[in-house]
Design brief:
Blueprint lengths: L4 H49 L3 H14 L9 E4 L6 E11 L6 E12 L7
Antiparallel strand pairs: 1-2, 2-3
Helix pairs in contact: 1-2
Length: 125
């Protein structure tokens, strides 16, 4: 008994929609991970510069928020913890990125990112 051409097309369309959904979700996850990696590198850079120059926490927070906005990361000021200053500077950033379903824009997965960076004496960029 051979399957009808309509059934074959329906199965093909269903598999195609599943593949599109999978690639869309994967793309969003990879994009969020790459943006986070860039943010982590920038965070390390800012901590080193701020520790060397003894910059105020308000300035550090502002620099990190601008970079997060540039990378479209959902980081808010209260998610950035800055302790100490100069050679004792410690910065922690903790935020969650939601991965949405295509067309519906509802969350199906959340990825949590945590960064803890300490000033390292003698390290330069």
């Amino acid at each position: 008994m051979a399957a009808s051409p309509h059934l074959k097309r329906l199965v093909f369309v269903v598999w195609l929609l599943i593949a599109i959904f999978y690639f869309y979700v994967s793309y969003n996850y990879i994009r969020a991970s790459m943006a986070d990696r860039q943010f982590a590198d920038y965070l390390q850079y800012v901590v080193q510069i701020a520790g060397n120059d003894n910059r105020p926490s308000r300035e550090i927070r502002a620099l990190l928020l601008v970079k997060a906005q540039e990378l479209s990361l959902p980081v808010r000021g209260e998610q950035i913890s800055i302790l100490g200053g100069g050679p004792t500077l410690n910065v922690t950033v903790d935020y969650i990125v939601d991965i949405d379903v295509p067309l519906v824009h509802s969350q199906i997965y959340s990825k949590r990112f945590e960064h803890r960076v300490n000033y390292q004496v003698g390290k330069t960029f």
